[in-house]
Records
---
Amino acid sequence: MTDRDLIAGLRAGELWAVDRLYRDNAPRVLGWCIRLGGPSLDPEDLAQQVFETAITSCGRFRGDSSLSTWLFGITRNSIRNARRRAALRRFVGMDAIPEPRDRGPDTEGRAVQNERRRAVQAALEDLKTAQREVLVLADLEGRTAPEVAAMLGIPAGTVYSRLHHARRAFATALEARGLPAGEEPEEGTVIPLRRAP
Amino acid sequence: MSRWPPHLTDALEPRPEELAGLMPPAAPRWCADATSPSDAELGRLLAHASRLPARRRRPNRALAWGLAAAVTLLAVLHLIPLPSDPEPSALVDDSALHFGPSITVRGDGEIQVIRTDADGTELALLAGRATFEVDPTGEQRHLEVRAGDVRVEVTGTRFTVALEGDRVSVEVLRGSVQIHRPGDSLGLHAGERWSGLAQPTEQAAATPTGPEVREPDAGARAPRTAPRAPTTEGPPPRAETPAPSTEQPAPAEIGSAAPTALSGRTAAEAWAALLAKRAAGAEPEAQLAALDRFLAEHQDPVLETEASALRLGLLAQQLPGEEVLPELDTWLAGHPDHARSLELELLRATVAREQLGDCGLALSSYTRVAREATGTLQATAQAWADYCRERSSR
């Protein structure tokens, strides 16, 4: 099935198309929301919002980019808006907003996973948005520079240069948190997850 | 976009292997793993697919949020233009008051002279509107205009101050001014307007004493009513060398008009003023009074809920636990998903534990917060839940 078939199904209001859109894209959309949304936004709510926007605005999909690229554009906008709203809430004094709910069972292993995720999210937050996007797409998701360039609408050369700076900044951010910035630690290695002061 | 053909630009792009030597190592794999969605998260997201109607039309929340954000932001910055403000040119008339060699006042306001001497001029606008022009190159150009508890400080510019009821608005036509309020200060530049409430204060019209008090003419007040039409007043008295006066200026009347507080303001403006008061560290009683007034005057559903939450937070500091707890329970029952609900749930637990000494009552709230919140809130609740559990089991 092509992207066009799927979009045609969505436009016709077919439930199978909605189901297919979710199943094919949920991992990557949720991954974007986790990595680009930062620790203070609820990634599941964001991802759900992305899919709702995609379904309601599928009529605007022109087909001149891949469905994945189109969804990434919606995700970027949703994250930008959510960040703006969060910033406004902080600005107008609605401070101490609870962080996103952790809906899983409360186990020790889960707590460690959550802590590690938040640490990586916090390190990503230290990067500029443009750097964060390139780093996430290229290094954390393993996309090629031309793919990243197409998704972000920038030349491939810009991807390389941003990636260069992003990697340095990310390594610095990880080190500032006492996290290993190099190769993957061996199983059983204890990673100090202290937060930056 | 490059104007070169693609084969030329591509040829000049660095190749990955060339860049590899320049770049530090890529992000470690464990970072990708740590931020990958878990099966549980994916499962929950996919569960939405079956519940979501295809092409469901949703209200444009983004637009609503955007508008609300814009209004709130403007209100907070106090830069909402006043619709009733006339054009600056309408304020200029044929008559003028002069204070020293550099200061000219025009308009239809009622002005009280507080001080005018070599160090500067202090005036109070008691009512109406006046345009103050200060020659930036002249001598004795320091001017301070008071309207209620708002002070506008300037050394060379042209600006308008209006006092209508308890609302003060300032518009800068040239240069810049500094506006002072109790606990707050902001700069205003040419083309900008500011509007806010003036609180009655006995210091507004000041009562400077001693021989330094000088007045430009015999009357402490210079009433300037309705001069828009060709005025029948004579040329305004000049006060370049005002005679020293040991008389006290006429008592201030700024504070005598009962302020109507938040009346006439939009909910966003009133909310911004309320937050400013809160940020300025106002006493809890004053904050509580302001919140009650806000709730009585505005029916904005979002801000109303937020105000009621803040009110409960303040009430908990003032009233005994037996009285606060039912109010907290009512609020929590009515707003289970509100952003403040976890904070208020924690407050409920604290009231139950500290004021009522009922750890059993507190435990249910601590447990909920520990389950649903994360971060500091969650950690705090978890610790107290453990404590209460242990106390209850004894």
---
Amino acid sequence: MKRFIKWLITHPFISSLVFVMWMLMNTLSVGNTIMALIVALLIPKLIDGFWVPQPQLHKPWKLVMFLIHVIYDIVESNIKVAKNTWLPKHAPRPAFIFYPLAMQESFPITLLTSTLSLSPGTLSAHLRPHDNTLLIHALDVEDPDQLVNFIYERYERPLKEIFGC
Amino acid sequence: MWQLIIESVIALLLVIGGLAALTGAVGMLRFNDFYMRMHGPAMSSTVGIGAVILASIGFFWFHTGTFSAQELILMVLLMVTTPISAHLLTMSAMHMKLPRQSNTQGGPFEINEQIDQD
């Protein structure tokens, strides 16, 4: 019985995520619940062959703090870019910056690059696996080293702590 | 009284969202090269969409009493997918060696040999 449940639920996290998504998108009824169960059990089974193991969450509490920081930074950089757009005095000073990555795992790196692209003003342009650097295009930058430091302190160090890598 | 406060908050959110979307569009127009123009849509897809969705959730919560979680899913899915398309667009722009503004600091070797745009 135990082995059957283990065979049935290969990825508990994805299963619960799909189940919650399905229930939120439809109205609550018996039919929808059965359908949600079927989908939640079937989809992880289908993607199992392509699944690459990802680093585990070590400190989930820090992830919440990270998200709050990211939302705050998005709002702040929106105001900055709006200034660059509307005020002729704040003409943008664009720059390409190399950012040396301190981590190797693909999922935390994806989170970092997504965070950078999502906040206006910075844009991840290219990931170079051979020397583990990230090419960033920044809209308005005074001192590139300061931006590199900021990204490390604000995003990469928390991510390394969260995923323990 | 409460109705007035809630409705003015919703209206404020709608105005903020509209202004952010407008700023993103104006940025596309005013910036000089492709890489700078990529920063405009990031604005409309974060604060623009976010404020409008928050306003919509608030409005329907207040008027019909149902909290629509679908719209939160919409926001999350947008936040997951926009960075990927932005990254791919920038990468392909670099491989096509699109010109950049001449005062751009730093030069990756991918686009170094080209002539800068004024």
---
Amino acid sequence: MIALRIGLAALFLMIAVTVQTSVLTNIAVAGVTCDLTLIVVIALALSRGPEWGAIAGFAGGLMLDVVPPADHTAGRWALGLAIAGYVGGLIRRETSGSPVGPLGVALTVVLGTAISFFLYCATGSLLHDPTVDWSEFGVRLGIAAGYDVVGAIVVIPLVMWLMGRLKPARERRRVTP
Amino acid sequence: MLKDLGTPSTRSAFRSAGEAPLRSAGTPREVRRRRTVLLLVVLACFTLIVLDARRSAGSPVEPLREAAAGVFGPLESTATSARQPVDNLRDRFAEMDRLKAENEKLKKDNEDLTRELNTSDYARNRAQELDKLLKVAPAYTMTPARVIGIGGAQNFSHTVTIDAGTADGVRTDMTVLNGTGLVGRVVRVTQGTATVLLIGDRNSTVGGRLNATMALGFVSGRGDVAGTLDYKLVDPKARPKAGDRIVTWGSSGNAPYVPGVPIGVVTSVTPNQGALGSTATVKPFVDPTRIDTVGVVTGPPARPPRAQITGKGN
């Protein structure tokens, strides 16, 4: 059962990366595409917790780093998305009594976008990457956060519902007394 | 004693004592496991960054990139084909507005051109000279390719993926262009895909030659979405004028840039602050948001060998 969940999560991430680089670029706003991989990572973190969030963020970020046309040092998006996934999972723990409402999900997505983008630019500055432009940071972050929330409204309920269907038997027995 | 902290009895004991327990903590074992996982993941990320920091061809991450390109190349290609029908529909709606705007612009251009033609012969002669100059750039052997993936602006780098690779004769440092002008150069190749660095990227510098005066200079990208370029002439006293066209200067061995490919047109000139000379802003001929079919220059120009001229001594 656990292998099936891991396989499904990996499939989500692969689809997200492919769609993000091929299809979503057509509907980019001022060059900023919807970060579908981040949304899937936050969805996995919100449904399964911080460890899953960190590992899913690492896997998704690594795919974003090595899949063409990425041309930057590998590991930068992996770091950003892993931390964002971990924080998203912690937010789930905070409200583990009740499920996270739509406002909570939106705020988590904005926070995740900010964290991952900031870490990406920070590692870029550390590595003396000449393309990182801090003057554009605010504008691009604003557009990305807005666009990601719009994408999250569609994608996160779907992912969380699908992951919820595959709860292992013992957890399901605990819920129904 | 420590491991009893998580059990409900001690937690209620805390509460009755007036201290609130830590809200985000689970049992200490869970917290430890969480933090171990996070630490391992962050260490793995930093290891990757350090391994790949030099970004040279010998980086240990290269096999991973090639494997990813092998897997995701066909996926991206399929996704791009799948969205063609949606694109066509959307384009048809946008066509009306575009045609109206183009009509207005063409009317205005027509008036300007008629006026110019009537007023000077000099302009006509100059146009003929420019025409001859552009015909000098010979036709090259090219491999056609389609753009199947584009990097978003969050990456700060302007790269696209094309669906031609080593199997089609593409190597790194080959020029990529389309019918309107220069697109970029190939930086990474795998079996079936290649990554192209666009000229609008900040890391990109192309040698450029002004058509009007044959003066040499360097065209570098600014990293903005429209692909605007900066042009600095080698001769600090020369001043380009708005409307001048720039073609590639060419590199040794035709790698990475072949000569004679149009790059863009000068839109404005500003003198440099604190240095001699001036920098021109160049609008590229190729719109980086609308690249679809490109050609990769894979071979020398296709032209018949020239007969040698030998002088007859007297």
